[in-house]
Amino acid sequence: MSALIRPAALEDLNGLTELMYDYIVGFYQNPGPPIDKVHHLIQTLYDTQQGIQFVAEENGRLIGFATLYFTFSTMKADKIAVMNDLFVKEAFRDTELESQLYLTCKNYCVDQGFANMTWITSINNTRAQSFFNKMNAVLGKDWVHFSIN
């Protein structure tokens, strides 16, 4: 059976939560947020449509996910999407599935009339940077990223 990429549904709550912990704790080595906060995030995106999550499923098991958050750009005077997450289990990295998950996000943004889709990745995540280069993404050069915790 081939993998299916689709919008996340409420029935995916547990599988999506597991994937998100694989991503947050396993891949990025960050402390895991409380499970109720992860569930609240998933539920909020589903209920408010301020974003969307896509899941990759194979043989009834979730193997990847991507999250888009919707916002606006003053510079473009238009709506934009932020791809906050793109994650597939290690066995599926550098495969057609990973490309399809990315293209699902890109095509969604085009189809919904977003001015652009933007994202960041860790400076140390050279594998992801290589993937995005392969997907013809444009490396941002005009802005410096800041954050406050």
TrEMBL record:
Coiled-coil residue spans: none
Sequence ranges assigned to domain N-acetyltransferase in this UniProt record: 3-149
Key words of the record: Acyltransferase, Transferase
Transferase found in the keyword field: yes
UniProt keyword Acyltransferase present: yes
Gene3D superfamilies, A to Z: 3.40.630.30
Protein source organism: Paenibacillus helianthi
Protein name as it appears in the record: GCN5 family acetyltransferase
